[in-house]
Design goal:
Blueprint (H helix, E strand, L loop, with lengths): L1 H17 L1 H5 L10 H11 L6 H73 L10 H16 L2 H13 L276 H4 L19
Length: 464
């Protein structure tokens, strides 16, 4: 009995230990587990003794599938968008191709219809014998101008060649008047338009490389910015009052061409052969005439402000009343040129050859003629006030009555120059060579700003 009681007691103790808080304080607190049981429970599920680093590693492992999923979805979306863009671009390109094909077919139909209509006018309505103003000629003209606006460059070439072959636009026998025809931007390279009447046509930015334009009438034609004139033959062409601003004529053949009144502002005429050309009244502002041959050319009343004339030939060139304000003429040969009443204000003529050059009544205010060759020249009617003539060659020059007030003649060669009544007030004669100068007086020397170091005729002295 004692043993049984002991066993029961032990069992009660275990029970008491397992639920100690429940049995002793059951009326106050309910604790479903013993601390030891919770520890066993934690050990069973594997969380006992875990550190922060273990938790982070666990979270990292669990996050990998989610990251892979998100990245996969992102790239899938990008690929889908790229494919959509490529598809849209392809569709757009195909649509544009379809439009281009349709437009090309339409132009081909327009050309065929035009040629059929013109053939009908030629065969059944005596178009070839009509004259501008006749009904049949006007009908043909309107159809031609309309079709030239609608067709592309390739087909416009066909139209022009057709009109040329049918002798409908010949300068000698004009049937269809092309005044106002618009061929801007067309490719007319190597096309034969010789002796064609293209008066008042629009040809800006046209490619005329190696085109045959011999004898072509381009009066008042708009050729602005036509850079593709390389090798074009303009022999005998009429370019009267044509607009050639910014055009490139550097390699074009211009023999016998007429350029009277043409606008050549900023035109490239480098190395052009313009000898004996009539360029009277032509606008050449900013034009490139470097190396051009202008010998004997008529440039009277021409505007040359800002033009480049480096290396140009100007022997016996007529520059009467031409505007050469500020132009660089350094070292150029102007022998025999006529600069009567020319505007040379601020022009650069250093070392220029001016033998037998007419400078009467020319405006040389502020011009630089240092080192210029003017020996034996008649400068009696030339206003040289304030002109820089330092180092100029004026030996034997006729300066009687010439106005040299404020002129810089330092180092100038005036040996044997005629100075009767010359105005030398405030002139700079430092180091000038005046030996044997004729009719120079002491009174004149007394008015100069300086003549220090000058070589003077006998009996004259330089004032202190």
């Amino acid at each position: 009995m004692d043993e049984n009681h002991q066993d029961k007691t032990n069992n009660n103790l275990v029970a008491t230990e397992d639920v100690r808080w429940v049995l002793n304080k059951k009326n106050r607190l309910w604790i479903p587990q013993h601390e030891k049981q919770r520890k066993v429970s934690n050990e069973r599920i594997g969380f006992s003794g875990r550190t922060l680093w273990d938790w982070l590693n666990l979270l990292g492992v669990l996050a990998i599938p989610f990251v892979v999923l998100i990245v996969g979805l992102y790239f899938t979306q990008q690929i889908t968008q790229q494919q959509t863009l490529l598809s849209n671009a392809a569709n757009k390109q195909q649509h544009q191709t379809d439009l281009d094909i349709a437009a090309d077919q339409q132009r081909e139909t327009t050309l065929k219809t035009y040629l059929d209509d013109m053939s009908d006018l030629l065969l059944n309505h005596n178009l070839s014998k009509s004259k501008p103003g006749d009904i049949v000629s006007e009908v043909a003209r309107e159809r031609t101008l309309t079709v030239l606006r609608r067709l592309d460059a390739k087909r416009n070439r066909i139209v022009l060649q057709f009109l040329q072959d049918a002798h409908l636009i010949s300068e000698l026998n004009v049937v269809i008047d092309l005044h106002g025809a618009d061929l801007s931007g067309d490719d007319l390279s190597q096309v034969n338009l010789s002796d064609v009447d293209l008066t008042d046509t629009h040809l800006s930015d046209v490619n005329l490389t190696r085109a045959d334009l011999r004898g072509t009438n381009l009066t008042r034609a708009d050729l602005r910015g036509t850079h593709m004139l390389t090798g074009a033959d303009l022999t005998g062409a009429d370019l009267t009052e044509a607009d050639l601003r910014g055009a490139d004529l550097s390699r074009a053949t211009l023999t016998g061409a007429t350029l009277t009144g043409a606008q050549l502002n900023k035109t490239n005429l480098r190395g052009a052969d313009l000898g004996n050309f009539d360029l009277s009244g032509v606008y050449l502002s900013g034009a490139d005439l470097s190396g051009a041959d202008l010998s004997g050319a008529d440039l009277s009343r021409a505007t040359l402000t800002g033009a480049t004339l480096t290396g140009a030939q100007l022997i016996k060139t007529n520059l009467t009343s031409a505007d050469l304000t500020g132009v660089d003429l350094n070292g150029l040969d102007l022998s025999g040129a006529n600069l009567f009443q020319a505007h040379l204000r601020g022009a650069h003529l250093r070392g220029a050859h001016l033998h037998s050059t007419v400078l009467d009544e020319a405006d040389l205010t502020g011009a630089i003629l240092s080192g210029a060759h003017l020996s034996d020249e008649d400068l009696r009617k030339v206003n040289l006030q304030g002109v820089n003539l330092s180092g100029a060659f004026l030996n034997g020059a006729f300066l009687d009555g010439t106005n040299l007030q404020d002129a810089n003649l330092s180092g100038a060669f005036l040996n044997g120059a005629f100075l009767d009544g010359t105005n030398l007030q405030d002139a700079n004669l430092q180091d000038a060579d005046l030996r044997a100068a004729r009719n120079l007086t002491q009174q004149q020397l007394d008015q100069v700003s300086t003549c220090k170091g000058a070589i003077l005729p006998k009996g004259l002295t330089c004032p202190q």
